[in-house]
Amino acid sequence: MSIDKFDLLFTPILGGLIAAYLAIFVYYVGETIIAVPYLDLLQWILRYDQYWQAGDWWNYLWLPHNEHRPIWSLLLVLADIEWCRGTTLPFILFDSFCFLLTIGGLAWVIWCADLVIELRVILTAAVILLIAGSQAVIYCSLPILSSNIHTVALLILALVLLDSDSEEGVRPTIRRAAAIAAAVCAAFGIIGGLFAPLMLLWVAWAGGLGRGWLIAIGLIAAILFACFLPGIPTGHLSDLPALSRVAEYYISLLGLPWSHAASLVWFGRLAGCVVLGASIITFFRCGLRARRLRQVERIGLASLIFGLLITAMIALGRWSELPEQPVPIRYGIYVALAEAGLVLANTRWLERVWQKGHRRTFQWGTLAATALLLIQQVVAGQAAVVVTSEYKTSYREFVAGEPTTTDRPVFLERRPVQSEKALAIIRSLGIYQN
User: Fold this and answer.
1) If you placed Cys at 134, which of 67, 294, 380, 413 could pair as Cys (CB 3.0 to 4.6 Å)?
2) Would you state the pLDDT for residue 418?
3) Cα(311)–Cα(334) distance, rounded to whole angstroms?
């Protein structure tokens, strides 16, 4: 294959664009930090006062928060209150680490694959573009959304630790035991993390691991379900869902981040249809040769299935909530994970297309898409700044006892007594005063 001047310039140009993309992301993380307690964080402060202050650490950590058991977030609340007096710094540091772990884990899998280096560069860029959009800064800057990135990061860590072509030696045994532990820990971000051990079980089977590993993972998954589910509220699933409405909302969710903008809901739904259609094709194509998939394809397919399953759970639980309104952006990480998985699951097909003479099309397409997404990166970041500014204004009004002048109430809606109690605790402990 001949290499011309464009081939030599392609990687540095793409690298520069991706560096700018990530720099914009980091900038907007800083601009959107909300270092004041609101919504779920107020509930966690009440929980801290009711249980932890009374010495009841078990109920503090284990009792459900809605349908979740967000142990990682509750541990961060402890660190924030006990060590930092309420600055949200533990959240920012740990959540940013989890975000880097998610991207780094997928990039590691790509660079371990037997692919030409240019294709590795393009696939890595695709993962970064999909996951590190400015709409995702909220997973690093807003404590109340931290549970989402905890679950995703621990899933990716589990998949990367488990999947290998060799079962021999002590180190693989330790690594795979750590993978199972990470998959179990993924359940303590959001409830959808319960799927993580099941994804691990599928990857173990597709990767040809021994029967002992399959039995161990399956048994641990069953124990996790048996311990986790009792006591979880199910009221939001009590009504029989209208399947057509659920399907409509599911498509809208798959269209994030565009379906979050009122003027782009139609485009988001179109994008959602494309993602779902491509996913179905990928399932059929990969399902017929699951035991012959490469590591990058196995992990990609597991990420795709995981993202689609959690998105389906969200659609079932939230389909009746303002279905005509833009979709909440907080669910975007699961769609981005599914899309990144979709790309990785199709690496064999992409490699064939590359080798058939479409190398230049890949390169130009990647540069064009990156340039367009750079523009979106700024637009989405500015929108996030506006929203977080409204939350900060609303919090100042809440503390001053004034009615909110924004559409972003920070207090616990329909629970004014609890809101006032949380504010009293904040003042008495001298936390979150900056």
Assistant:
1) 380
2) 86
3) 7
